[in-house]
Amino acid sequence: MTVELPVKKLSDYSVFAKDDVEKIFEIGKKMKGLKVVHVNATAYGGGVAELLMTIVPLMRDAGVDASWEVLEAPMEFFNVTKKLHNTLQGADIEITDEEWALYEKVNEENAKKLNLDADVIIIHDPQPAYIPLYKSGNAHYIWRCHIDTSTPNLKVWNRLTSKMNMYKKALFHIMDYVREPFDKIAVEFPPSIDPLSPKNREMSKEELEKIAKTYNIDMTKPLITVVARFDPWKDLFSSIDVYRKVKEKFDVQLAIVSAMAKDDPEGWIFFEDVLRYAGTDKDILFLTDLKGVGHLEVNGIQRLSTIGLHTATREGFGLVISEMMWKQHPVVARPVGGVKIQIDDGINGYLRNDVNELSEAIVDLLSNKQILEKMGKNAKEKVRSTYLSTAHVKRYFEVIESVING
């Protein structure tokens, strides 16, 4: 399925990153008309989809003929790829021969029916990773991995990657995730946020007050906010534990913000478990798309926040960290995956491990408004200089150019 895309203009981003915009246009002139297709699992409900909704239109504006295709697959396929995702992050789960066969069959079917007539095809994550096996032509393939593969289940990793030797480059959030057979073609490739998207644009006082009223956010209380999928790796139980410890010293609220992704059937089960764990505490707010929370609402909730919290035990990158930092709030988080390169400990947030340490860090920030504000300013500048969409498009163009030129 071809995803319908909005129109975005690179010139609108010059106010944030003029040098990057100029570099993108410079490379874009050399690649004008080049056909580039991105392929992933879903058009909504996940970080990859959000990225592509900005990245692909900006590539187009620079002169590249870019498009975005999404897999067409039954729910049984997504049950298998969820297991695949978890095993690549280290879970000890068995994937049967029948499940592997379904995985390969869906990839073969999609290779035939998706619009993949292109010079460069960028495959995102494991779901469509085998499409190149069933597609003839002279396209250059790039694999973009958004998962923490630092300690994968080796049985699954070796079986998956044994048929992935057609890729010219493999892009990982951080080099810690790189393993054979990609060590010689790997590129460090952090993702980005779109400062002009509904999720990150500036908002008026009236808009924020409306969101606060709609979702029962008490603007007189400090708000700790977690933005994460309902996924065991996010450890939302620890988020609730941290909140409860902070609550012993400060009258705070906790917002757990999430979207129920199409390609994550396991998420519904975990959602119910977390709800039960939270109990009837009215200061724990579950704010999801089931209650009408879209990108603009997430933006507003983050701006109404005091501190961001992230308790994931494994994390590919954790772009929600940059989103919160862009709103000028420090984040307290576990030092996992890409989180630890976004947060500079003691400068724009705190990196801590257990529940006691995380709660103590939040208490320290709530106890010192001057440090809280200073870290917030540092947080926004870190994102502006490193993790905006323009830097991301520039990185893509540089990689594509290197692949085309051999």
From TrEMBL:
GO term, biological process aspect, one: glucose metabolic process
Gene3D superfamilies for the chain: Glycogen Phosphorylase B (3.40.50.2000)
GO terms, molecular function: glycosyltransferase activity
Keywords: Carbohydrate metabolism, Glucose metabolism, Glycosyltransferase, Transferase
Residues annotated as domain Glycosyl transferase family: 209-381
Domain annotation Trehalose synthase N-terminal: ranges: 38-178
Xref: InterPro entries: Glyco_trans_1 (IPR001296), Trehalose_Metab_GTase (IPR052078), TreT_GT1 (IPR049438)
SUPFAM superfamilies (UniProt xref): UDP-Glycosyltransferase/glycogen phosphorylase (SSF53756)
Domain of life: Bacteria
Family under the similarity heading: Belongs to the glycosyltransferase group 1 family. Glycosyltransferase 4 subfamily.
Quaternary organization: Homodimer.
Protein name: Glycosyl transferase group 1
Organism: Fervidobacterium nodosum (strain ATCC 35602 / DSM 5306 / Rt17-B1)
